[in-house]
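Repro:
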Amino acid sequence: MKCPKCRTVDLSPTKLEDGLPAMGCPQCEGAALSILYYREWAERNQPVATDAVPDSDVVEDSDTRTAMACPKCSRLMTKFAITGSLRNRIDLCGSCDEAWLDHGEWGVLKTLELANRLPKVFTEQWQRKVRTEKREAARMERLQDQVGEGDAARAEEVRNWLKSHPRRGVILQFLSAE
């Protein structure tokens, strides 16, 4: 099998975790992971313990913009976002259930406590949540551009306070009556 990212480099056997085989690329350090092997591994293992890694230490690999060909069956893989705040996306072949993890993405999954729940990332519910996170981050960025970081943070604080306030409607009515 050839690396779907490098295209000319042969993949070689490796392990993401003890008992979790994958086919790794020695050049880009990505890995092809059989979801079948992953599910078997996840059933046998407790959640992968990891020390909290600060966001600044998370590797954001330069993900390919175009779809990649599955290293196993050569069909196009679909990209799935891991979270709304990171650019990392996992490629999945819908035909043979092979996933491609770019360099550092297994670490991202462990940091986000998703290593034992990887299939969740491939669900429509998860992807909808990611899109919502991205929209909210874009809204906040626009607000920061318009009013500055300090005022945007204060507005977010007020909004969060209002979300759980039992008399939210009364307060909003008061604020809008200018």
